[in-house]
């Protein structure tokens, strides 16, 4: 009896594993299809100059448009794309689409674009990005590449080579989610970033935890000391904005100014406001 039930549980286990492998294979196929038929598109969230209140750029954030009213967030497919070896293709298509969209914006409006740590092990990365810029006509000065801290940890030599190439071409490099990753300060000493994006977790919860205010103040000091501009992520409330402005944070991003929206809505937003119009009309004066 024991032998029999043992065998059954082995079968059951195999069945579960088989289902899992099948499901994963199906999801990968669906992802590959979505990439090839451009169902994964960039949405855009405004980046605000906190001194003037003007929109100075947009961050491209990937969205999988899986059906009417069915939008899948990047947390559900970027890692899968990385694991399935699809991230390079996905990223190149997204960048091409984003550069084309940005070409329809005023010249003063920049494009921020995220790349995965894995892509910094690809020695062709710099060339790929430059090719897309040439193909679409977007000047390198209008592009900002955002990377998370883990990116540099994986393959330091390759990462610094690629980021150096991009900077030499006039592209700005931002360190994303600052303060959350592996050894933030050591990353800052290894590469000359153009900007730091302070992670949302420090901005959320100012009211409950005064230490976070002190940390943000210290990060700004660090940025100033290094001559690097600072952007605060995840600004949702007026009092957060007021505090960040009072301590001299350069740029801000968050639902208070706008959630990520489609390319069409972005163009409409820019036409309505004009590039010089204040994005803070509805919030702080
Ligand atoms: P991220 O680069 O740090 O982007 C900021 C994230 O914070 C976005 O989430 C944005 O929608 C969200 N956010 C902005 N303001 C607020 C706010 O006020 N409140 C809250 N609760 N959230 C806010 P999203 O779009 O889900 O993207 C998540 C992450 O996925 C991004 O974090 C980025 O690391 C990654 N990602 C997005 N698009 C791409 C892409 O094209 N390539 C790669 N490699 N990664 C991407
Ligand atoms: Mg980002
Ligand atoms: Mg971030
Ligand atoms: Mg993030």
TrEMBL record:
- List each copy of the EAL domain by range: 24-274
Keyword field contains Isomerase: no
**Which keywords has UniProt assigned to this entry?**
Membrane, Transmembrane, Transmembrane helix
**Record's protein name:** Diguanylate cyclase (GGDEF)-like protein
